[in-house]
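Appendix B, Record 12. Input sequence as logged:
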Amino acid sequence: MWRPPANHRPLSNSTPPRPSPPPWTVPAQKDNLCTNVAVFDPRGRILLVQRARYDYWMPQKWEIPGGSAERSDESILHGAARELWEETQLVATGVRRVIAENQGPDGGYAFRDEIRGVRFCRFAFEVEGESCEGVILDPDEYQAYLWVGEDEVRDEKVGEREIPITDGSMRSLILEAIRLKGAGEGWGSVDG
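Logged structural output:
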């Protein structure tokens, strides 16, 4: 199980320790793999984060936490846990399931960042966490967060507040995560 250092300080520049990967993992490749993480609170609502207003890619739009895998990530699962920690200060304690994006049972969704000229393949996971309390956002990446239900994602609205999702594929990914959570499908707790 991945954990931040015992003496961690939120949003510090220190790199969290990385556990040894299981022998079946494949090292992540820089600039071509990315991950997103679905986290649910005890009421079954999913965590959405709002991109910073000055972000170059889809500023002020909403998504689930995630980002690029790094060469130092020992696996895509470690990259997912690291991204969740860096962006929200939430600790992933296990992986519940892969969230496939209508591209087969193994997941994976390819897209291109035209600004940087990089092609990515995205893998998404539902994770279990130590706690859903104490979300602290990295202000360089995000400016707000919400716990939302399925209807709010479909409507892209919470009460009178609009919550535009980054794009159709992210919206589909979030709705699939909610569907799978409701269906109770998954692996059970698997250390990443």
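The first strand starts at residue 33 and ends at 38.
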